[in-house]
Amino acid sequence: MNLRNYIIITGAYWGFTLTDGALRMLVLLHFFHLGYSPVHLAFLFLFYEFFGIVTNLLGGWLGSQMGLRVTLISGLFLQVASLGLLALLNPGWPEALSVTYVMVMQSLSGIAKDLTKMSAKSSIRVLVPKDADGTLFRWVAILTGSKNALKGAGFFLGGFLLNAAGYAGALWIMAGGLLAVSVGSWLTLPSDMGQAKGKVGFRQLFSKTPEINVLSAARFFLFGARDIWFVVGVPIFLEGTLAWSFSQVGTFMALWVVGYGIVQSSAPAVLRGHSPTGATAAWTAFVLSGVAAAVPLALAAGVPPRTVIIAGLALFGVVFAVNSAVHSYLILDYTDGDKVALNVGFYYMANAGGRLIGCLLSGVLFQVSGLAGCLWGTFAFALVAALVALLLPRSAMHPETLVRAAIKVGDGD
């Protein structure tokens, strides 16, 4: 594979991910400190998630038409614009106007995040030879795991910068750093990376194979399960109920995501080098649902909340990381390099849809029934993800299968 381009893409993705994690923690803690309710906090992220759905669908098509360099650089520059515009928020504005403004600016960040993620992950399928399944799994796991470790560092960075530089100062610092990364990537990546060889019809946005449709449905419920507790529930529980400081909340969330990223990078070793199949996706999701149920049961049994949250969600993170890494491998195993941007974009559209529903439910369930309600919602979504994954192929998609699939797609152009 082209190691130089892989390093540039990974570096750009890392730079973006730091700002993405920091922005989420910064916005959440800043507005909670201003007295916003859990439901209002959830609304701050709704446009971020909604526009991720649209972006993944159209971004995959744009990537196949214009090349992945264009979509990657566009995502980076949009994030710089979003950070700068959020810094202009006037603290004297009425709450309704502030919420609306942040939602609109967050929509830019949501578009940026999914353009960047779709481009970076699609690029691996382009850079790795089709018959190198083991290499593909390792490089996907490394990129995805390192991204999540950096996102965790971003959570810490967000809490730290909020304390050290204030809301606007933190945003300007992040915008300046990411601008430098954006310019460097623009100047060094090849212009035609990931561009489809033939014309890609717009109708092909929804023309997917059964295994990609099923995997996308499982992904929807998997990430909905995570965000039901992750977006509002746990951070607000730690800050509001356990009286942790901004830095403590940011550090805890950072450690969780860093640990999750490390496990995700190590998924090939956890699975002992075996290429995952649909069966792997199903059984790991069943284990995840069991862990999600155990946490509220332990809270109801009177186990100290601090112990339950730290231990229970650490275990949840380990299982979720393996399940997510399996999904990230399967979407590339099920697709062909020439149409990878389309398929990955469709898959991450489902991912963003799950985050959107999870984000909304996180605020609603926490306001109605506290953290326990969030975790029972997580259990339900994880269980559905497992049941859907049972419909996936029970064996790997071998290179010759990918060739036949590519021929079939070509016949339909």
Would you mind describing this structure in some detail?
The structure is a single chain. The chain has 413 residues and is mostly helical. It has a single domain, classed as Growth Hormone, Chain: A. It contains 14 helices and no strands. The protein is globular and about 50 Å long. The C terminus is likely disordered.
Features of the shown structure:
globular; 82% helix; Growth Hormone, Chain: A; 0% strand; mainly alpha
Strand content: under 5%
The count of β-strands is 0
The structure class reads: mainly alpha
- Say which CATH homologous superfamily is assigned: MFS general substrate transporter like domains
Whole-angstrom Rg: 20 Å
The ordered H/E elements are: HHHHHHHHHHHHHH
Class, according to the CATH hierarchy?
Mainly Alpha
Runs in which pLDDT lies below 50 for 5 or more consecutive residues are 398-413
CATH topology, anyone?
Answer: Growth Hormone, Chain: A
Q: Biggest sheet: strands, sense, closure?
A: none
Mean pLDDT rating? 78
CATH architecture: Up-down Bundle
- Report, as a whole number of angstroms, the end-to-end distance: 28 Å
Helicity range of the residues?
over 70%
Shape: globular
Enumerate how many helices there are, as a single number.
14
Question: What count of structural domains?
Answer: 1
Any chance you could write out the topology, listing elements then pairs?
Layout: H1 3-33, H2 38-44, H3 46-66, H4 68-87, H5 95-127, H6 133-188, H7 210-230, H8 233-241, H9 246-265, H10 267-270, H11 278-300, H12 305-333, H13 340-389, H14 399-411
Helix pairs in contact: 1-4, 1-5, 1-6, 2-13, 3-4, 3-5, 3-13, 4-5, 4-6, 5-13, 6-9, 6-12, 7-12, 7-13, 9-12, 11-12, 11-13
